[in-house]
UniProtKB/TrEMBL annotation:
SUPFAM superfamilies: GroES-like (SSF50129), NAD(P)-binding Rossmann-fold domains (SSF51735). Keywords: NADP, Oxidoreductase. This is Enoyl reductase (ER) domain-containing protein. GO terms for molecular function: NADPH binding; oxidoreductase activity, acting on NAD(P)H. It holds the Pfam family ADH_zinc_N. Residues 11-327 form the Enoyl reductase (ER) domain. InterPro entries: ADH-like_C, ADH-like_N, ER, GroES-like_sf, NAD(P)-bd_dom_sf. SMART domains: PKS_ER (SM00829).
Length: 331
């Protein structure tokens, strides 16, 4: 028997539990079974168990979208991997292939070889955040030199990766945070300017920083009231990528203010951009290249043991998390 993390009712970390399951004896043609060595936590995992994610869980349900480990068995049509390979999962839209536990099964399409210069803990800490930031800035907005991008909740793993992506395109980053003590660290991680939204007027500071030229794009995992604070400093043809509700308050779209600035709001999800193989492979190659050059690096906040998995999810809910939370499994 193998232990996995699962939930039988909707709720927060308190509904999570260890469950014993049988190791699969048969795989579908495109499936890969692997022994998990580490898995990473994302707020979207918690939203799934809380019933707040656009993916609706089928109860009882496993949890988790990112894991790394060693291949144990292959479906009949799998060609990219062999038994013993070190692999990591790419998060995608699914209620079936959830991965937090001692074993996981993932379709070949959503599995990659671990980068040679990263260990299991690091390898499971890159794909959700870097892939999420890749499509808005590289493929959609096509950020270029000196374009100014506002990144909300800047100390989250998703936003830290966004800083790296924008800087790789020679853009300029304004990072927003509610914590004075995070400012120096965000600058160390590449932000050109940091605004404390608790003590400073966001739009006034942006006008000051940009000489009233405004911002080219916004990476918004927060919702209101953050959304309302930057609407008047958007450039013409600017893009707002809205992909989260950290505030717990949905955006009420202000059509008039978008019309005045000729700006656009895109309800964004990584999952909509990795359905096609060509699209997912473009993202993977861009990230792997920058990982291999040490331009992109995992930013890990804390590592828990497998027995502390529920505690890791409780820690995920804390305000001061800066980077990725990982659980290591020492089989």
């Amino acid at each position: 028997m193998k232990k996995v993390i699962s939930f039988n009712k909707i709720g927060g970390p308190e509904v999570l539990e260890f469950q014993d399951i049988e190791e699969p004896k048969e795989l579908k043609a495109d499936e890969v079974l692997y022994e998990v060595k580490a898995f990473a936590l994302n707020r979207s995992d918690w939203l799934l168990s809380a019933g707040l994610h656009y993916t609706i869980p089928n109860l009882p349900s496993r949890i988790g979208s990112e894991a790394s480990g060693v291949v144990k068995a292959l479906g009949s049509s799998v060609t990219k991997f062999k038994i013993g390979d070190k692999v990591s999962s790419i998060p995608f839209f699914t209620t079936e292939y959830l991965v937090h536990g001692e074993i996981a099964v993932t379709p070949e399409k959503y599995l990659v070889h671990c980068p040679e210069n990263l260990n299991f803990i690091e390898s499971t800490s890159i794909w959700m955040q870097y892939m999420t930031a890749y499509y808005p800035f590289v493929k959609i907005a096509k950020i270029k030199k000196n374009d100014v991008v506002l990144i909300g909740a800047a100390s989250s793993s998703a936003s830290l990766a966004a800083i790296d992506i924008v800087k790789s395109l020679n853009g300029l980053v304004i990072a927003a945070t509610r914590s004075e003590k995070k400012i120096d660290k965000l600058k160390e991680y590449g932000a050109d300017e940091v605004i404390n939204t608790q003590t400073e007027n966001l739009s006034d500071r942006i006008n000051n920083i940009t000489n009233e030229q405004g911002i080219r794009a916004v990476y918004d995992p927060i919702g209101n009231p953050f959304y309302q604070q930057y609407l008047d400093v958007l450039q013409s043809n600017s893009l707002v990528f809205h992909f989260g509700l950290l505030s717990g308050e949905s955006i009420k779209i202000d059509i008039s203010r978008h019309v005045r600035t000729n700006s656009y709001l895109l309800p964004y999800s990584l999952f909509n951009y990795i359905r096609e193989e060509n699209s997912i492979n473009e993202g993977i190659e861009y990230i792997k290249e920058n990982i291999s050059k040490n331009i992109f690096k995992p930013k890990i906040n804390k590592v828990f043991s497998f027995g502390e998995s529920i505690k890791a999810y409780e820690y995920l809910m804390e305000y001061d998390v800066f980077g990725k939370i990982v659980v290591e499994i020492k089989n």
